[in-house]
Every structure is written in structure tokens, then in C-alpha cells.
Amino acid sequence: MTEKRDILIVGGGVISFAIALELTRQGASVTILCRDAAQAATQAAAGMLAPQAEMIPPSPMLELCLHSRSLYPAWVHQLEALTGLSAGYWACGILAPKYGETGHTGEHWIGREEIHARQPGLSAEVMGGYWFPKDAQVDNRALAKVLWAAAQKLGIEIRSGVTVDLVAHREATVTHLHTNQGDWQAEHYILATGAWSEDLLPVPVFPRKGQMLSVQAPADATLPLQQVLYGDEIYIVPRRDRRIVIGATSESVGFTAGNTPPGIEHLQSAATRLYPELKRFPVQETWWGFRPATPDESPILGESPYRNLTLAVGHYRNGILLAPVTGCAIAQWVLNRTAIVPLDAFHWSRFRP
Ligand code: GLY
User: Whose C-alpha lies nearest to ligand 1, atom 5?
Assistant: First the structure.
């Protein structure tokens, strides 16, 4: 039997849900097909909203990221009002400390005295750093719950445990999706399939593994960190519930699962070098995930080789950050063939040989 819907979105992460919610808000009828939301990069992320700390060079990608960061407070507020749940958005700013005499300067640079005053407890090796007050964070796992609840509240159909194994097409038209739960047909299809996108279409999206860990700050001390620390090869993200998320490795090992001793050891030594007090805090959890990387580290958004299939894949290190702008832009693209931001720079064909 073939299931028929208006719009099918494939994927169980923030991008899929952000698009589904925006389409629904604009009056469309949407079904989400997801294999296993727990595997999405959304669950593995740290939730940094960090276009500046990530040092994205001036480009359409930076514009997209800055735009999405500016949408975040209102986007989260709307979702929280709808669901009564918190997504843990925190406009805490991000501090990027540097070791040694670096010759760094610029609008955001602060010297040794100022950085140690801003963040007591940093390593004595820290000689200065960059302060990005507009960068922020959201609790990505809480956000995933809020998005799921919002989708349910708006009556979006979510079908879990559905593995799409083939995008069937006749010439430039997708005819149906073949899945482990039969065939699914729609007027329009949207792929938000993260690191697994290449299984379905020849788009250059590949997994870049990140290992992470968290520690728990003791309840008897004041929360020691009041902003994200973004060091060299390490970031430390304090949550308001005293959990501190530490990430992340960046490994080209395909979909090899699991935490490794060298991966965790690297995170622990880099994190405790930057902020030695972490040595006192018990490890709470270790985990890993797969970032959806592309060759130019920017997503693939909008048109696909098929007239009735839209792409929203390859968000690499910035999927949580880019969720609001991707949701709006893709919904507008699907419904009106326009978008709030230019999508030309993110067209799939830029990778065509
Ligand atoms: N956005 C941080 C990371 O991908 O590790």
C-alpha cells in the first residue's frame, strides 16, 4: 500500500522540525518521517550559537549564521509559549581565550587583565582572548523536546522508525519514497537527513564524528562559568542546571560508533588546561555524534536535481544555530519559490564536477 501526503519531510533533527513547524504555520500539511531521532546530530551537539567564535570568514555562510542568531530569541520564545517548555536559550556570550603572545587584535580582543577579570579561574597561560557578547547558547536536547512538543501541538504527523532507503524518480520528478514501512508519496519532498544524506541522493555530505563529555558542577558552589569558553580545539559550555558540556573531537572515521580513550583523554586534557577547576567536577556522561559535513562547510539548501524535492542538508558545525533561518527559508522556498535570504550560494550544483 502507498501512503499519500501533501509534504513529506525526511529527518528527525532540528532542521526537519524547524521546517515542518514553519510550513504548518503557513497553512501547509506536513508529515515527518524519521528513522531514529536519537541519532540526529541535534542530540549530540553542544548548542552553541557561535558564528563569531567559530570564526566563519566573511561570506554568505556568515551572513546566514548571523541572521539565524538574530532570529533565535523570538523563535525560541514562540516555541516556549506554544509548549510551556524551556529550550534553555541563554544569551551568555562566548569568550575565546588564547595562550601565549599571539599578536591578536581587533574590536573583540581583550587583554590579559580583562579576560581574567571577566572569567576567574582561567589558566594562567591565557594571555588574552576574544569576547563575543552576541554569541549565545541553547540547550540542544531541551530544544529537541520543545520542537517535538510544538509539532505535536500543531498536529504535525510524526512517523518514527521509518527508514527511507530509496528516492524513486521518473526523470526530474520524485515519484515516491521506498521505506521499511512501504512506499510514501507526496506532492513535495524535503530531505533534512543530515550526515546520512548521501545514502539517498548524490550530494557530498559526509559524517565528521564529534566526541563529547559532560561534567557536573557541585551544588554547593556558585555556578563557576557564566559564559561559554571557546578555546583552541576545545569548548566548554556551562548550562544553568550546572551541567558543563565539553566538546568536541573532529574525526573523519565514517560512521564508526563509540567514544575512544584518546578522544576523551584529548577533551579532558584540553578542557582542564584551559579551566583547571574542571578537574574537581565528576564526569557525568560521554557521547558522540556525526556532523553532516560538506566540502565547503556550508549547507545545501533549496533546489535539488528534482523539481519536487527540496534539500536542507549539510549544516556541519552549525545545525542548531541555523535551524530558525533554515526553517523560514525552506518553508518559503517550498511554498513560494522565494526565501528570506538568498539561497544561491547554497545550491547543490556548486559541487557538480
Ligand atoms: N559547533 C561545534 C561543533 O560542531 O563541534
Answer: 248
Query: Does ligand 1 lie within 6 Å of residue 247's CB atom?
Result: yes
203 pLDDT higher than 90? yes
DSSP 32-72: EEES-GGGSHHHH---EE-TTTTTPPSSHHHHHHHHHHHHH
Task: Summarize pLDDT for 24-56 with one digit per residue, the tens.
Answer: 999 999 999 999 998 889 999 999 999 999 999
**8-state DSSP, 266:** H
Question: Regarding the domain delimited by 2-85+139-205+295-351, which CATH topology (the fold level of the hierarchy) does it fall under?
Answer: FAD/NAD(P)-binding domain (3.50.50)
* CATH of the domain spanning 94-132+207-291, picked from 3.40.630.30, 3.30.365.10, 3.40.50.720, 3.30.9.10: 3.30.9.10
Angle formed by the axes of helices 319-336 and 140-153, to 10°? 30
pTM over 0.90: yes
The Cα–Cα gap between 207 and 349 comes to 20
User: Domain boundaries in the chain?
Assistant: 2-85+139-205+295-351, 94-132+207-291
Crossing angle for the helix pair 14-25 and 140-153, nearest 10 degrees? 30
Q: Is the CB of 319 under 6 A from ligand 1?
A: no
Please say whether the beta carbons of 254 and 207 come within 8 A.
Answer: yes
